Amino acid sequence: MSELAARRCKPCEGGIPPLTPAAATQLLAQVSGEWMLTDNAHAIRREFRFRDFYRTMSFVNALAHIANIEDHHPDLEVGYNRCRVTYTTHAIHGLSENDFVCAAKVDLIPLI
């Protein structure tokens, strides 16, 4: 388990600045190489592909469990055999460490 995946999300009610692009790039190096920084460095995104709808929804349910435990929720785009996951910290209109902690935890979900 990575150091990021072992961490817990910290409550964020706003009032702090989002990560700089340089800081976000450093944290991005600690998650799967399939996570991408958006052009404006306000979010990270990854697309997962599956064999069928059942496997897609199994993944979504596992991800939802992580989101509820961490109290940090991604934006999801779900289709028959794919799920696009986008993390950003809405309270600060950009990225926080929480986004990378959750991405690291999502990386540990077994893809069936």
Overall, the morphology is: globular
Overall strand count: 4
- Uncertain runs are none
**Helix and strand element order:** HHEEHEEH
Structural category: alpha+beta
Spatial order of strands in the largest sheet: 1-2-4-3
Portion of residues within helices: 25-40%
Q: How many separate helices?
A: 4
The N- and C-terminal alpha carbons lie at a distance of 19 Å
The fraction of residues in strands falls at 15-25%
The averaged pLDDT comes out at: 95
The major pleated sheet works out as: 4 strands, antiparallel
Radius of gyration: 13 Å
How would you sum up this structure, described in words?
This protein is α+β, with helices and mostly antiparallel strands. Helix content is 36%, strand content 17%. It has four helices and four strands, in the order ααββαββα. Strands 1-2-4-3 form a four-stranded antiparallel β-sheet, with helices on one face. The protein is globular, with a radius of gyration of 13 Å. The model has no long low-confidence stretch (mean pLDDT 95).
Key terms for this structure?
112 residues; single chain; four-stranded antiparallel beta sheet; globular; 4 helices; alpha+beta; 4 strands
